[in-house]
Amino acid sequence: MRKAVVIGLGIGMAHAAGYMESPDADLHGVCDLIPERTSRMGGTFESGSMLCLKPLFTKNQLAGKWEKAGVKVYPDMASVLSDPEVDIVSICTPDYLHLNHLKLAMKAGKDILLEKPVGIDIMAAEALSAEVSAYPGALGIGYEFRLNPAILKMRELVLSGEVGPIEGFSLYHFRTPFRRDKWNSWIQKREYSGGLIIEETCHWFDLARYITGKEVESLHCLTTGGVHQDFDFEDIAYINGTFKERGILQISHSLTGFDFSLQLCLHGQKGTVWCGLKEENYSSLDGGASDHIGIVSFGKPGMSPADARIWKWGKEATEPQNIRDLVKEFAARSAQNVPQRASWEDGCQSLRLSVKALESARLGKIVKT
Ligand SMILES: NC(=O)c1ccc[n+]([C@@H]2O[C@H](COP(=O)([O-])OP(=O)(O)OC[C@H]3O[C@@H](n4cnc5c(N)ncnc54)[C@H](O)[C@@H]3O)[C@@H](O)[C@H]2O)c1
Question: Which pick of 65, 203, 324, 350 has the fewest CB atoms within 10 Å?
Answer without folding.
Answer: 65
